[in-house]
Every structure is written in C-alpha cells, then in structure tokens.
Amino acid sequence: MGPQSKQAIGEQHVLVLAVRFPDVEPSFPIKRIRKKVVRGLNKYVKEQSYGLTWVKADFRGWIMLPDPIRKYKVSPYNFKVDRTRVKKLIEDSMTAVEKEVDFSRYQHIFVIPCAFTTPGKGYGMICYCANPGMLSGVRKNIRYVPMESKGGQTFRGGVCVATENAHLGMFAHDFFHALGGIYKNRRLIP
User: Fold this and answer.
1) Most buried of 32, 35, 146, 174 (most Cβ within 10 A)?
2) Strands (DSSP E) along 6-157, which ranges?
3) What's CA 28's distance to the chain center, in Å?
4) Residue pair 103/154 in contact by the 8 Å Cβ criterion
5) What pLDDT digit, counting tens, does each position of 113-169 carry?
C-alpha cells in the first residue's frame, strides 16, 4: 500500500478564516460558507477515513484584510504562483485575528478568500494547498514553511486556501495534502 500518514488520524483542529478584501463584496452569505467548511468538510473527511479522522473547525469570519485584492491575487497556474502573495494572504489573515487566537491550538489553517473566483478572475486560483505546497514547492524541498503574524505568533502546520465558490471536493483534495504531511520529500494523501 505504500507509506501511510500517521498524523492523519483522529481529531484535526482547524482554524477557518473567511477573509474579505476592502474592494470586493463576497458572493455567498457567511452561513453558506460556514456550512460547507465546518459541516461539509467534517462529514466528507469522516466518511472517507471510515471514521478514523474528523475535523473540529473553529470558524472566524468576516475578517477584513488590509489591502485590495490585487495585492493578494495569484496566478491560476500552479507553477506560476507568486509565493510572496500566498505568504502575505496567510500572514495578514493571521495578523487580523492574532489578539483572539492562539495558533498553537491548531494543526491546520484554512483561509477562504471571499471573492467569486474562476481561473484568472477574482482571487486567481480557486483552491490550493499552501503548506506543504505552494510555499515550498511541490516537486522538491517540500516542507512546512513557518508563517508569522505581525505580533510574532508562529504557525508551522498545514495551510489551505480555497475561495468562497470552491466546491467541497476541492476543499477536501487540498486539505488532504495538508493532512497527510510529508514523507521522504513527498506530500502524502491519506
């Protein structure tokens, strides 16, 4: 069967941050986004793992980011994504909630840019695994890149980014990259 992820078992503590841009109105109500990410993702993960893994989500939204969407927008192509923009999105999101959140309590963070997105429009890419993945690369030197809020809190776990209109299958696929971890310089999928 190949290598099996040991970290993908049991309760997964996930901080979910539904973020807004000052120049873009979200297309979906916050309740709809919350339902998909909190209930939908947990149900999917539980079913796919035969009850061995489940998601305990701490949902926070609407979180206003300091800059317009153009400062965060990424390419819709995996190998053309500007890592500095991915890092900015995650760290600005962390900074916005750092006074009320202890990041060490979570294994994973989900950032949801609330901008209707299609390839190249809106945020640019609909869904991706940032850590491990976009921040370190997906072919070599794969690792968890530490993220840091302006106040100095650090997070070294899995990070996924999925726009408000990403469907549940996209959320799950990229969450599984974060959930599985790394083995011999490869991302595992549980």
Assistant:
1) 174
2) 10-20, 53-64, 108-113, 127-131, 147-148, 154-155
3) 18
4) yes
5) 999 999 889 999 999 999 988 888 766 778 889 999 999 999 999 999 999 999 999
Q: Which two tokens stand for residue 45?
A: 């993960």
* The pair of three-digit structure tokens given for residue 42, joined into one six-digit string: 């947990």
Are 109 and 14 contacting, i.e. CB atoms less than 8 angstroms apart?
Answer: yes
Instruction: Pick the closest to residue 41 from 156, 167, 164 (CA basis).
Output: 167
Q: Helix or strand or coil: residue 48?
A: helix
**Do 10 and 51 meet the contact criterion of CB atoms below 8 Å apart?**
no
The Cβ of residue 38 has, within 10 Å, a number of other Cβ atoms equal to 17
How crowded is residue 11: how many other Cβ atoms within 10 Å of its Cβ?
A: 10
What does pTM read for this prediction? 0.93
The CA-based dihedral angle spanning residues 110, 127, 62, 55, taken in that order and rounded to the nearest 10 degrees: -30
Task: Quote the tokens at residue 158.
Answer: 């899995």
Q: How far apart are CA 182 and CA 61, in angstroms?
A: 30
Q: Which of 132, 48, 130, 120 is nearest to 90 (CA)?
A: 130
User: Which carries the bigger pLDDT value, residue 123 or residue 7?
Assistant: 123
Buried b (16+ CB within 10 A) or exposed e, 125-159: bbbbbbbbbbbbebeeebebbebbbeeebebebbb
